[in-house]
Amino acid sequence: MVNDILKIKAFNVQTVSFGDEYKFNAGHLIIPQQANLKLPSYYDSIKIRIIRPHHHNVQVNSIMDIVPISTKVLGEIGTGLTHTLTGVVLIITGADITGKQLHDFGSSAGILQDQLQLGTPGTPGPDDYIISFDVMLGEKYEYSRKLFTDIFKYADDYLQPIRKIMKMIDGREASETHEYHNYPNQGKGKPNVAIVKQVSGQGAMYDNLLFPTEPSGMRGGESIIDMDNFPVLLTPNEYRDGAIHAMV
Amino acid sequence: MGVGPSTKETTLHHFHDPLVQVFGSDPDINLQGVIVVGTPEDNTLKHLVGKRTAKWLEGMSTQGAVIAADGWGNSDVDFMNTMSAIGDEGISIIGLKFIGKQATFVVSNEYTKYVLDINKSVQGIETTVVGENSLDLHDANKALGLLKLKMRADGNG
C-alpha cells in the first residue's frame, strides 16, 4: 500500500540550555526561559527549568505527563517521515499557590529522584535532559477538563517552535533511522492478532487525546471523551508515530 | 481509584509502547492494529463499547488479542466486560493490568486467570513513583508468549 511505511529519524541532544530564542545546532538545544504564553488570570505562572542528567535531587510538583519532542516532516501521523529528539523529554508538573497538587489519583510531588523511575518506556533514561514545564495556578480556578486540556496545550505550544526547527534539520545528521512497515506479515498465513488498549476517558486528568497533527502533540486532536469512549482503530504505525497524547 | 502515578501511561509511554514494539516485530503473528477504547461512566455504555470492540475484532477475523489498561479500580469493570465480550466471539484473549495487593479482582470469571499482573513494586501497591508499575517490554514478551499458548489451546491459528 502507498502509505505503508513510516520512517522515524532520531536526533540526539547532547546539551540543553537557555537562550533568547529557540535554536538547535549540532546536538545543542537552546530554549527560552519564558514560556511567552497569554495566561488567564487564574494562573500564577509557568516556570521552565532545565534538569540536567544525574541532577535529580530537586523538588518537583506532581508529574502530569512526560512528552517526547517529535514533528512530522512529510506525510500525516503514521506515514511518511518523522523527526524526533532523543536525550531530552518535557515533563509537565503542576500545583496551585496553596500547594494543592494537580493529579487524578495520588500525587507524585516530592524529590524527583524519589518520584521518578528512570529508564522505563514512559520515563526518561538516566542520561536524558529534562525540560520541566511547571504550572502554578492561583487560588480561584475551576478543576475541570478544560483546565487540564489547556495546560497540556500550553506545554505543546511551548514545544512547537522546537518542532518548527526540527522540520528543517538535514536528515543525514540523524543519529538513528527506523523504518516501520505497517503489516509486514500480512498475507503470509500468520494468525491475526490485535492489541486493545483501554484508556481513561471520564474527565479532568482522566482523558486521552487521539490523532493530533504533530506526533505526541495536542493541536488538531480529539479527546476520547468527545468520542463517547467508543473504540477507534489505529494502525501499528499510527501508534508508533505518537497518535495518542495522554492526559492522565 | 483511577490512574495513579506508578501505573499511568505517559505520552512518552504511548510513543514507546512495549506491546506495539513486541507484537509489531514478532515474525509469527500478523499484527492488525491497535483498538483504543475508553472507559465510559454509564453502565450501559460500558457494555456497549466492550461489545463494539469485540464485534470489530470479529469483523477483522482476529484470532487472538491482548488487552491492557492504564489504571485500576472502577475501570476493572470495563476491562472484564471487554475481555469477556472478545472471548465470547471465540477470539483468544489475554489481559495485562496492575493487580499487586491493592487491585485484585472483585469478581472472577473464566477469563481472569488469563490476566497478567504488571505490578513491580515490592509492596504491591500504588507507590506514587512515576513509571514504577507501568507495562514494560518484559510484560509485553510474557503476554505474547501466553497469547500464543492460549491461541494454540483454543485452536486459533
Automatic annotation (TrEMBL), chain A:
This is D-proline reductase. It comes from Limosilactobacillus antri DSM 16041. The lineage of its organism: Bacteria, Bacillati, Bacillota, Bacilli, Lactobacillales.
TrEMBL record, chain B:
One of its GO terms (molecular function) is oxidoreductase activity, acting on X-H and Y-H to form an X-Y bond, with a disulfide as acceptor. Pfam families: Gly_reductase. This is D-proline reductase.
